[in-house]
Amino acid sequence: MKINKKFFNILSLMLVSTFMVGCNNQGDFKSKDEIKIGITLYRQDDVFISNISNNLEDIVKENESKYDSKILLQFVDAKGSTLNQGNQVDKFINQDYDIICVNLVDRTAAATIIDKAKSADIPVIFFNREPVEEDMNRWDKIYYVGSQAEQSARLQADIVAEKWLSNVELYDKNKDGKIQYVMLEGEQGHQDSLIRTEYCIKALNDKGIELEKLADDSANWQSDQAITKMSQWIKEFGDNIEVVFSNNDSMALGTIHAINSNSDLIRKPIIVGVDGIKEALEAIKSGQMDGTVINDAYGQAKALFEISMAVSNGDPVENINGIEKGKYKKLPHTKITIDNVDEYLKE
Ligand code: BGC
Ligand code: CA
Prior knowledge:
By secondary structure, the protein is of the alpha/beta class.
């Protein structure tokens, strides 16, 4: 009996210690062997956003072997719903993700997400849709990756100015010395829509070029909506449209489609976009579009990756090249016209 009891005690001790080792191993496994990054997208079908996602996947594949940990990327589509996005963030938190990357559906609704992540102590990297500064200051483990919106506007203005001044005779259709324009805006309230819309006109004014607005409206970054808007404007203003400013390339491509399928227009206006998506580069090459400004999808994906890895390895984010105020990384743009498009079409 005595021996049995002793044996039993030893056995239970062994069991307890095995259990404890198991726990430790599991705990270590989670933080060391795998880094889980959850990414919620405002809309997966947005061309520019899907470029960022594809780049991020490639960057992880290329770099994973340099790290001790496996890297898991999980993309989810909020389909334009704040409610969906909130649920997706909850799921990432419940499943103990290490980092959550958020492409906000509504950039004014960041606070709820931040507060949830803060109580679970999971860092958040917002990207492409910038929370207001007050929200960014709610916690020291939130970051933002995006682009330098004012620069994109100024470069877009440069393209228009160069084109216009190269042959005012030709482009000033009504010979009044001013640019009659229409403006296709992205989503209302999106920092890139607001800033691009305002500063491309300001920049042209600064260059001494006068403009007259015929119409402007939001087409929510989408090509289909741009076709509808542009078709309406062609009916309304016909050949008086001298320049079409578009806050992004998808909408500029919609404009081209509307122009090509409408016989009321005698001469194509100057058309400019932002992003540098492949279809836009091809349209520049074929002369249907006059220029675009590259919004660096690769650079933004790389910044998401670098911040994620720094945060999960406990390295200071301040050391990452180009980080401002310890939490912002805003990538610069490049101007594309017929003069340099070949270089970028090759990539
Ligand atoms: C891009 C748009 C995109 C939007 C999505 C902007 O920075 O230029 O093409 O639709 O972000 O939030
Ligand atoms: Ca004119």
